[in-house]
Amino acid sequence: MLFLVFELDGERYALDAREIVRVLPLQPVRAFAGTPPYIAGVIDHDGAPVPVVDLARLALGRPSRALMSTRLVLVNDGASGVDTSGGASADIDTPSRCLALLLESATRTQTLAADAFAEGGIATPEARWLGPVASDAHGFVQWVKVDQLLDARVRALLFPDPPSWRRAATDGRAP
C-alpha cells in the first residue's frame, strides 16, 4: 500500500494514499469561532469551504508550524459514505465531504504492506485516530485513521445536516 508520510516532532505518521483527494501547498486558513482548538478553520477549494484539522494541535496541543514542508492534504471524510477500499459506498445518498489536514513534513510517500502494521500495545481512547504501527529502517511509523479523526459531535459542527443556513432560509428566518 502507498502512504503519505508526515512528521510531528520527529515521529513519523502515515496516511493511506487512497484516502487522499489532493495535496496542496500551505495557504491561509480562515479561523472559525466556536470550534474545538484543533479545527484551524476553513479553506476555499474549488469554490467550496473545506474544514481544516490541524494534526499538530490535535496530537501535540500546539499549532502546526508554517514550514516549507507543511501541506494541506485534502482527504475524504471517512464517515461520509465514501469507501476508500475500492468497493461500493456504504450509503450512496451520503455526499462525499472533504477535510483538509494541516500536516508538517508531508513531502514523501512510502510503500508499506498492510500486514506490516501491528497494534502498538497501548490503548489510545483519546486519540482513536492513531492506528497500528509498522517498523522499518528509520524506526516506527503510525497509521492515521482518517475515519476516526472526528467524533460525532465535531462532525455535526463541521457538516450539519441540513446546513444551519439552509434550515434558517426554509424556516423563513434570516441566517
Automatic annotation (TrEMBL):
Q: Which domain of life is it from?
A: Bacteria
**InterPro entries, per database record:** CheW-like_dom_sf, CheW-lke_dom
Its BP terms in the Gene Ontology are: chemotaxis; signal transduction
The record places domain CheW-like at 1-155
Name listed for the protein in its UniProt record: Chemotaxis-related protein WspB
Gene3D superfamilies associated with the record = CheA-289, Domain 4
Q: Which Pfam families match?
A: CheW (PF01584)
Q: Which organism is it from?
A: Paraburkholderia tropica
